[in-house]
Design a protein that fits this description.
This protein is mainly α and 94 residues long. Helix content is 45%, strand content 0%.
Length: 94
C-alpha cells in the first residue's frame, strides 16, 4: 500500500483560532483560585462565630453557627464554602 500526495491540487489552508487550540479547560476557573483570607481575618471570623455560639443556649456545635456563612463570605470577599471550610478546620488555625 502506498500513499500518494497530490501537490498540484489547490489546497485551501484553514486557520484554526488559538482559542480552539488551547486546553479545553482554559476558560474554566480552577478550584481554589479565588481570594485568600489573611490569618487575622481567619481569627476574626472564628471569634465572631464563637461569640455568636456562646450567646446561644445550645453552644455545643460550632459547625452550625448562627451567623450566616453567606454574610461573612460577602463581608470578607470569599465564598461561603471558604467560611465553612475554615470553621470545619478551625483547630488548624487556633
Amino acid at each position: 500500500m502506498s500513499l500518494h500526495c497530490d501537490t498540484t491540487a489547490d489546497e485551501e489552508l484553514v486557520h484554526i483560532p488559538d482559542e480552539i487550540l488551547e486546553s479545553p479547560r482554559a476558560g474554566v476557573k480552577r478550584k481554589g483560585g479565588g481570594p485568600r483570607l489573611t490569618d487575622a481575618q481567619r481569627m476574626e471570623i472564628l471569634q465572631a462565630i464563637e461569640t455568636a455560639v456562646e450567646a446561644q443556649a445550645d453552644n455545643k456545635n460550632l459547625l452550625k453557627p448562627k451567623i450566616p456563612t453567606k454574610r461573612l463570605a460577602d463581608e470578607y470577599g470569599v465564598t461561603p464554602a471558604a467560611i465553612r471550610k475554615l470553621v470545619k478546620q478551625k483547630d488548624k488555625f487556633l
